[in-house]
Structures are given as structure tokens and as C-alpha cells.
Amino acid sequence: MAIDKLLKDEATEEKGERARMSSFVGAMAIADVVKTTLGPKGMDKILQSAGRGQSVTVTNDGATILKSLHIDNPAAKVLIDISKVQDDEVGDGTTSVVVLAGELLREAEKLVAVKIHPMTIISGYRMAAECARDALLKKVMDNKEDAEKFKSDLMKIAMTTLSSKILSQDKEHFSKLAVEAVMRLKGSTNLEAIQIIKKAGGSLRDSFLDEGFILDKKIGIGQPKRIENANILIANTAMDTDKVKIYGARVRVDSMSRVAEIEGAEKEKMREKVQKIIAHGINCFVNRQLIYNFPEELFADAGIVAIEHADFDGIERLALVTGGEIASTFDNPESVKLGHCKLIEEIMIGEDKLIHFSGVEMGQACTIILRGASFHVLDEAERSLHDALCVLSQTVVDSRVLLGGGWPEMVMAKEVDELARKTPGKKSHAIEAFSRALQAIPTIIADNAGLDSAELIAQLRAEHHKEGSNAGIDVISGAVGDMEKLGISEAFKVKQAVLLSATEAAEMILRVDEIITCAPRRREDRM
Amino acid sequence: MALAFDEYGRPFIIIKEQEQKTRLRGLDAQKANISAGKAVARILRTSLGPKGMDKILQSADGDVTISNDGATILEQMDVGNQIAKLMVELSRSQDYEIGDGTTGVVVMAGALLEQSEKLLEHGIHPIRIAEGFEMASRIAVENLEHIAHKFEFDATNVEPLVQTCMTTLSSKIVNRCKHSLAEIAVKAVLAVADLERKDVNLDLIKVEGKVGGKLEDTELIYGIVVEKDMSHPQMPKRIENAKIAILTCPFEPPKPKTKHKVDIDTVEKFQTLRQQEQKYFDDMVQKCKDVGSTLVICQWGFDDEANHLLMHRNLPAVRWVGGVELELIAIATGGRIVPRFQELTPEKLGKAGLVREKSFGTTKDRMLYIEQCANSRAVTIFIRGGNKMIIEETKRSLHDALCVARNLIRNNSIVYGGGSAEISCSLAIEAAADGYPGVEQYAIRAFADALDSIPMALAENSGLQPIETLSAVKSQQIKENNPCCGIDCNDVGINDMREQNVFETLIGKQQQILLATQVVKMILKIDDVISPSDY
């Protein structure tokens, strides 16, 4: 009868097994896409945008890859979402979280095939995740008290994070950069204070950390190129024509001479403003907005460096670094806090002129200059460094550290296996499956490195059977190694986030038994 | 197609362009309608109960929603059929009225339709069926009142409330931490509840979510959280004992509503205008400062000059705060919303013990917490979770829990869940049915059968043998004369819902039965469907 048209045209409905199938397949497909990028020997992907210019990105970063995929499968969208959140929250582990969720679903699919209800699987997974987390908590190391050790922990974490990226060749160099930069933040997680400037040319090794602040701008013409003991006024004000803000005001004149008069008055107004600014006793003026030629000339006459059109972040950072405040009115010079620095000079990096502020008061901010052969390399280097910085800054807050190289997964798998043996009922199958999913991660790392994963994992498991083992996969030598000696560490916070979000996402997808898709909204062709 | 003839035998047209319209009449129409209604109920049936499954809904723009909430699922579904739309409405009205039980009501209606289909085949007139259902629903509601328990709680003993909220939450994805969430919901409701008037204004509870962290980090904040930051990066991030000026006027020179023009034709005029403008800004900030405010919250923006002046006078400010949030802040801090600078007085300032800015994660996300307010009657539930969909689903689940807590404060009667109330009603109706002479008797019995379908669906979703379990529980209820026996969905081994602490609100259950009956009556009365055919 007439019920075949319950939904509107083109809206589709998938039920039961088919819905579950489609979400499993979608999620696993996504996991497979990023699977090969996992680990130190993971490969990169080329992403070509469909938009104008077909710009190309080469990357190894899970979140970046997934962000650029156009996906129609709803379950896949869930995975992309968790990877994005992982990126926002801890910065690293974006690939691992997707791979783990994918593996959990792959295992779940097998269980569903032998007629275990998804709800049973979910409750098993929950128990297992809880148990795995406890296992990790038991094994964490916290070196917050010991500054020296803590720094070496940070170094190790940075190296581990970077070793899977394009920077792996110079990972020591970059780890040092990242650790130093993060240590300067003194515990704040505001990565805004670390500026990364990319300049093509040179090699990656030429990248450096600058303690001062570098502004990618030029000094006005005819103004001094070098100032010592600078007093800086940081401003956000219109230096073109100061608009009258009273609504409805307009100039109505009846003769040419009047026009000239008004113009004169306008100029006078600007001159007054400049005078006021100069009265602050400054020798450097940085404005967020444009500075027109006329005021620029006035500044040049007074021997003041005027820098125009610094972007918002630049201004905020500059204010942070030099300790000045961002001013917009200039009537009482005595109460405006000026920024100070020892030296302002124009420097050359590659072919570009930049302005360098050194000897700043507050050492929180710093600048990392990345050099590299091409824009793609630089972009990827920036992403990698960003990952490292994120992880480090989060580690400074939560200083618990774990070993890396598949070690945490094996520790968790062992505990979870133990739990499975103790749990009666169907749930124990799910718990076992969870442990298999955990072991899949070191397996993939080994596979990507071209090693005999089956052999290695078996060895690893045997090693872990001993109490307090530090064994993990040493990808470089292709054997099981002592992770502590090799100095491979990971942040606890990252691992925990990976574990919890992957379980949460898998649970979410497992609970679904029906997919209803609305008809896509019709779009007019905008071509 | 119907064709009418006038007294001269000429055909004339009743319905315009009738060839192009499809028309179903009589029994066919009723059957078509019933099957449409059943189809909707069938979709929701698997979502019922603690072991119910979720649905993925993909909207026209490709956004994904994953939900277990009946009202949400139906709302997001692209329903084309008119009768199916009625079912959507049904679920929505349960949502507005009660907030919970949106799935149950649709499943109930579906079961009633299924039963009426059989009766129609017996040749019973639809109106008689409708009347029978009506009578039966009255019996059911009475029976519910009979088996309901009053249950006592006060501000100190909230455990019973928490238990009821947990029943609601246990069918959602958040059941991992249902206890803490239920506690949060109850605390939130109690904080804003007017226990004397027995009313709760849920608008005072703001539910905010932020991606990241884990579900366990969800917290209740006795105050307001706004997703805004200070207008100037160098303003203090922490203000204690804040006196808040809440403004709905921009920090700009006034804009008179009447059209006007200020003509400048001489240099002098230009100068005075400039001075006037500067004075405006100065005055505005001065006025805020004069009344002693230490924080300005403004609905509008202000330009750089005003911003700096505020910064300069050490007056932190927040701009572009939405209207709803502004109202909540005003309620919470006991301040008044001030539309004009001239009207700013010290009495109109809101007070808060602590205002702080908190940043999250690695991106530049900041939230403004306003806490320890003068009037703690506005609270915020701040949800954290692994991804956007979890947060959205948690928001919906918490909304259900909040509604349940509110209903309990309004009326503290409860019935037991797990299908026990339905079984008890079904038994009561069946017993009463024989007392009715006439065709209605059949309809009343059918109603009792329909009620059975809810515990049946529960058992089915929990992986139990539906018929076996249901008949066992039914006989147990009769034998022990205990209306609290229900389906043991969680596999605990006890059938008594009192021991399992599974409660539902009485009004929620009554509404479910009444609403479902009403809609079914409406559907049954339709005997002609005229719809424009496809073009």
C-alpha cells in the first residue's frame, strides 16, 4: 500500500545489519587511510585540494589528512571528528586515535558476526578501557620535582613525537627548539606566544629559535634602521584619516577655499595626534592599522621608527613580549605603559627583511624561524613542530610520562587480558577483543617499518610477561628493545585521550542500528 | 475517482483537477494510514529501553546526529507522509510537555494502531474502536494513580530524585557516568527550583558544551559560563568581587533615530565636533567608573578607542554578549540590564564573587566563568566529551533528565519502570473489559494487548525471549499482587523494579498513554485521503 513513501524523495534508510555494516566499513576505511602514516617509518600522503589552484599538501599528520577528506559516510565523520578533537585538545596522537577506533570496530565486527549483541560488546569495551587506564596510571612516571630529569623527559617526548614526521632527520635540533620554546612559557599553554615564521630557502637545519621577537614587517622609509634602548608604543588606531564617528556628520562646503581649509584642519588633526604620540617619549611606534604617508613622514622627521599594519596576533604578542599595553588614545602619556627592548634592528633572513626586537623584558614569547627547501616542506615542518609544541605544553601542565614504541599498548593489553580471564560471561570476548585491538597498534608500527610484525609482537608479549618490562619496538634496529634506554617517551595525557576518545567513538558507532539520510539539499550551480 | 451527476445526468467535477490527484477512501485509507504510523513506530522500537540502539541521522547538509532520543530522531527524519508527520508531532508534544518518554509514546501509538488494524478487519467501526480506546485509557490512567507512590524528598535528601534521573539516563549513551550526570541534573534543578510554588524554570539552567576532555569532567557551575573573552588582551583575567555593569548600549556616540545631518562647513565646526566626539567616549567610560563597576558586560561592540579607554581606566569589559546570556547574567548577579549610560546607578550593578577567564586545550578557546553570584538561582551545566556528537547527545540526555527532575518537583508521584506500570495497567484493563457490554469490549481488550507491547519491546531489545519473559512477569504480578514487577533489562536477576531502583514519573506515564490514545483516535477517524499526485 502507500507506505513505501514514508520518507521524502531521495531520503534513504538503512536498517539493522546493513546499517551496522555500512558504519563499520566506513569507519574502517578511514582508519585504513591513515594507518600507513603511523609510527616513525610511516609514509606521507599528498592531498590535492579540489578548489581553485589545486593546491598540494604533503603531510603525515592524521588530523590534517582527515580534515581534507570529503566524506559521505556518517560513521567516518565520527572518526574524523575525534581526530580533530584530539588535535585541539592535546595536539598529537591524531592518527593513533583513529587507528585504535578502527581496530576496535574491526574486532567488534567479528564479535557481531558470531551473534554477540553490540550492547554486550560495549559494556565489555567499557570495562576494558577502564582497566587499561588504570594499568597506565600504575605505570606512569612523574618527574615534576626534578627539573633536570623533567627537561630530559620533555626532550624525549619531543623526539618521539618528531621522529614520525618530516623533521625526523633533525629531530634533536628541533626537539631542543621546541623544549626551549615551551620552557619559556613557564607553564602556560598559550601557544600563541610562540611565533613560527616560515621562510623558504636554506635547509631545515638552519631553523633557529630566537629569544626576541621577530615581526615580518618593514620599517618605514627614511627612518632609522637600528634603535637601541627602544621605547615602544604599541597602538591600534587609525593613522590614515581619522573618521568622525558621530553619526550623520558630513562635510558640506560651498567653495574651493573651504575645501582647502577643511583639509588643512584634517591635516592639523593628524599632526596633533602624531605630536601626542611623540610626546610619549618613544622612539618606536607600532600600529595595527595602516599608517599613511603623511604621518609616516612626521614620524621620520622625529626620528621615530613607525611600523604599520602589524597583524592582530603580532600586536598582541609584541605587547606580551615588551610589556607594553595596546593603546588607542593618546591623551595622557604618563599613564600609558610603554614597551621596552634593548635593540630593534632590521635583519635579513633569506631575501626578506624582518624587524627583530631583542633584549625584551618578558622572556615568555619567542620566535622560531623555520627554513626549508620548499613551501610544502615548511608547511609540514610547521605542523610537526606544532604537534610537538602542543604535546610539550600539555606535558608541562600534566607531567606524567610513559614509555613509547608500543610499550603502553602492550602494558594495557596485558592487564586487559588478565581482566578477560577473570570476567565471566559473554563480555569477556569483548574484553579480549579490546586487547587485540590495542596490540594492533604496535603491529601496524612494525608493519609500516617493514618488519616481521607477527614475530616481533610475539616476542614483545613474551617480554611483557615479565614484571616491569620496558620492552617496545625499536624500529631503527628492527628488534625488541628497551624503551627507557632508547629514550622513547610519550605523554600520559596523549595516551589517555587516545584511549578514551577511541573507545567513546567506537561505542557510539556500535550503538547504531539504523541510518536515516535526508535528501541532500539542492544547490544551485554556482559555477 | 468519484464522479457526481446532477439531476440531468450530467457529470460535474467536485474536486479540481481530480484526475491528477490520488485518493484513498474507506478501509483502504485507514489501512494505509495505520501502516504509515506503524512504520514510524517500528523505527523507534529498537531505541526503547536501556539496551536500545542509536540511530545515525544525516541531515540535508551532511551533518551527522547520533541519537537515542525519540523526539530528536523523528524531528531530524525527513518525513514526507502526512500520518507519519502526526507521529512526529506526537513525540514532539510529549517532549514539550514532559521532556522524557518520547520514544515510548510513539511505540505505544504504533502498538495501538496495530491492534486497531485487526479490529477493523473484524468489521468493527473505527469510531467504536476509538471509543473503546478512550475508555481503556481512562482505566489505565486511574490504575496508574492507584499504583503510584508518593515519594518524599527535600533539599537534603535528593537520592530518590537522582535515582529517577538515572532511569532516564540509563537508556542514553551517557549511561557510563549516569550517576554523576543525574546528580548534576538534580542539583541544577534544585538550585533553580521554587519549592514553595513547586515550579522550576528550566530557562535558568544553561547547558554549555565544549569538545575535549572526557565525560567525567562535566561539571555544574553555580554561575554563568559565557563563550567570550575580555575585549582587550591585556585586561585582567580574574576579577574578585566584581560589580558588573550590564549594558545594552554600544560604546559609541549616540545615533538618534530621527534622520539628521550634521553639516560641517567651517573649520571651527570641525574642531568642535572632534572635541565633542572625544568627550562622548570619555563620558561613557567615566559613567561606568563613577557608579563603581569593576566589569562591563556589553551586548554590543565598542571601537578601539573606547576599548583602550576602558583598559586604561582599569575597567575590564566583555563585548558582543548575546541577549539570552545577558539576561541570565543579569538574573544570576542580581543586576539590571541598563539600556542607557545615563541610567546607570550603583543599585543596578550585578555582583559576582569571582569572574575568571579559562582557556582550553591547545587552540585559542576561552570561556568566561562568572561564579559566586549574588543570586545563585542561575546555573550552568558544562559538558565535556570526546567529540561533537557525544556532546550534543549529552545535552539532549541532560535535558530529559532535567525535565524529569522538574516533573518530580511539580508532582512527586512515581510509578515503577521497566514496563511494570504498563503490565499492571494491561492487567487492570483486561479485568475491567468484561464489564463493558457491546463492541467496545473488544477495543478495550485490544488496548490491553497494545500496552503489553512496551515491555515486549524492552525484553526484545535486551536480548530476552519476549513472549516468555512477558508472560512470566505477568503471572508473577497477579500471583504476588505486586505491580512493581517488570522486565529485568540489565540482567541483574531481580524482577522487582523497586529493588532495582527504576522509577518513572507518574505524569510522564499518564501523558504517554493519553497522548498516544488521542493520536490514534485521530488517525482512525480519517477515511479519505486526497493528495496531489506526483508531478
From TrEMBL, chain A:
Q: Which UniProt keywords apply?
A: ATP-binding, Chaperone, Cytoplasm, Nucleotide-binding
User: Where in or outside the cell is it found?
Assistant: Cytoplasm
The record's listing under CDD domains reads: TCP1_beta
For this record, the Gene Ontology CC terms, alphabetical, are:
chaperonin-containing T-complex
One GO molecular-function entry: unfolded protein binding
Q: InterPro entries recorded for this chain?
A: Chap_CCT_beta, Chaperone_TCP-1, Chaperonin_TCP-1_CS, Cpn60/GroEL/TCP-1, GroEL-like_apical_dom_sf, GROEL-like_equatorial_sf, TCP-1-like_intermed_sf, TCP-1_chaperonin
Protein origin, superkingdom: Eukaryota
PROSITE patterns linked:
TCP1_1, TCP1_2, TCP1_3
Family the entry assigns: Belongs to the TCP-1 chaperonin family.
Q: What does this protein do?
A: Molecular chaperone; assists the folding of proteins upon ATP hydrolysis. Known to play a role, in vitro, in the folding of actin and tubulin.
Q: What is this protein called?
A: CCT-beta
Q: Write down the species.
A: Protea cynaroides
Automatic annotation (TrEMBL), chain B:
Q: Which GO terms describe its cellular component?
A: chaperonin-containing T-complex
Look up the signal peptide feature and give its range.
Answer: none
Q: Which domain of life is it from?
A: Eukaryota
Q: What is its main location?
A: cytoplasm
Question: Does the record bear Transcription regulation in its keywords?
Answer: no
- Catalyzed chemical reaction(s): ATP + H2O = ADP + phosphate + H(+)
Q: Which residues cross the membrane?
A: none
Pfam families for the chain: Cpn60_TCP1 (PF00118)
Record key words, sorted? Acetylation, ATP-binding, Chaperone, Cytoplasm, Cytoskeleton, Hydrolase, Isopeptide bond, Nucleotide-binding, Phosphoprotein, Ubl conjugation
Listed GO MF terms: ATP binding; ATP hydrolysis activity; ATP-dependent protein folding chaperone; unfolded protein binding
The free-text function statement in the UniProt record for this protein reads: Component of the chaperonin-containing T-complex (TRiC), a molecular chaperone complex that assists the folding of actin, tubulin and other proteins upon ATP hydrolysis. The TRiC complex mediates the folding of WRAP53/TCAB1, thereby regulating telomere maintenance. As part of the TRiC complex may play a role in the assembly of BBSome, a complex involved in ciliogenesis regulating transports vesicles to the cilia.
Q: State how it assembles.
A: Heterooligomeric complex of about 850 to 900 kDa that forms two stacked rings, 12 to 16 nm in diameter. Component of the chaperonin-containing T-complex (TRiC), a hexadecamer composed of two identical back-to-back stacked rings enclosing a protein folding chamber. Each ring is made up of eight different subunits: TCP1/CCT1, CCT2, CCT3, CCT4, CCT5, CCT6A/CCT6, CCT7, CCT8. Interacts with PACRG. Interacts with DNAAF4. Interacts with DLEC1. Interacts with SPMAP2.
Family note: Belongs to the TCP-1 chaperonin family.
Descriptive protein name: T-complex protein 1 subunit epsilon
Q: Which organism is it from?
A: Protea cynaroides
